[in-house]
User: Fold this.
Amino acid sequence: MTYPWPLSTDQESCYDTEGASVPCEASGQDAESTSNGTYNDRRFLLQGDTVFDTVTELHWCRNANRFEFPYTWREACGRITEMNRSKAHGHTDWRMPARRELFAIVSHHHINPALPRGHPFRDVFSGYYWCAEPCARLPEQAWYVHLGGGRIYRGMQEGAYLVWPVAGHSPVDPTGHPRFRIIGPTVEDDWTGLRWARSSGNALCTWDDALHAVVGLRQDRFGGLTRWRLPNIRELESLIDLKRHSPALPAGHPFKDVSAGYWSSTTSVYEPRYAWVLYMQDGAVGVGFKRQPTFGTLAVSGD
Assistant:
């Protein structure tokens, strides 16, 4: 079982707490270790009125605003049913995208829209798009992704947001299956291949402190692994189980001292004085002001 979504971002630059560009070497920031090449000009293949994502093997409407107007969550589901009845663009399996599917095409280097360089999509609105999943803690709400900057949050299902249909077989969701193995003070995630520190210590710190905290982790304490770092926002988000809340982690997870939120190594290019944060109550992806000691640190090892 392999994680079917990107684990690295396309972030190419590093920034200090004032939002100024700095060298990436030895910074511990996202762009220093980005390497998997999933954001290249050959990722998206134009196929008439649809776009095929070679990474997730999903088909997207090329027109990201096909319905022209925002709809409530239930109205959006009805419009997609109509697409399937008419075999729109040659498909009968159109659906609302899962949160992780929509997040998979988000860029963390570009804004307005937050899509990768050279993407072939049209009429992308730099605003909110519905996702398929309701919020586990607040089931009258559902998830959406902001395609201006990449934020993931939840809104009332009676609210009106845009819809971007997707077709194709949804990748396997491993929630409900064991994915974590405890190895001493660390946790191996068999789904992503990443190894995590089992405990964050629950201490709140600034973003700079979080970046530097992982450097001091002792080799003998963490199973002989030497390259510990602060995770990027995609790696952090991969831990989330949207069927659960408080925290939004898989049932029986082995993590200790779970914080309310965790810093990532990924700067928000929408406002570089802020960095991306994973909120653990529901699994939201937002930002935190880098200079404020408001979030925890969770170390990761693995490329």
